[in-house]
Design a protein that fits this description.
The chain is built from no helices and eleven strands. The protein has 122 residues and is an all-beta fold. The radius of gyration is 13 Å and the shape is globular. The mean pLDDT is 93.
Length: 122
Amino acid sequence: QVHLVESGGGLVQSGGSLRLSCAASGRTFSNYAMGWFRQAPGKEREFVAAISWGGGSTYYADSVKGRFTISRDNAKNTVYLQMNSLKPEDTAVYYCAARRTAVAGTRGYDYWGQGTQVTVSS
């Protein structure tokens, strides 16, 4: 019962920053852990970051640690992914996801957004 819509993707130069947003709707939004995934052409979807329903616990893929920050504002029904020091290899479609558990995790997500394109130029 969660609908997710991503926004904020676009074209950015290497070393630059982007902030992705995920607007969520649903009665139980605050009880869902949230995550960000990405998929490059010809590659499988990969985990990027996750956050617990209360925002107190986060988890990141090794490839983005120290560069990306996931956060959420349950009052605004929104999850964010702040991406700094972007690299060309970060180019992908980024997806927001939700799962019916409060703890952050890398798998087992139940709902998915449509994705937003992030392109990082050299």
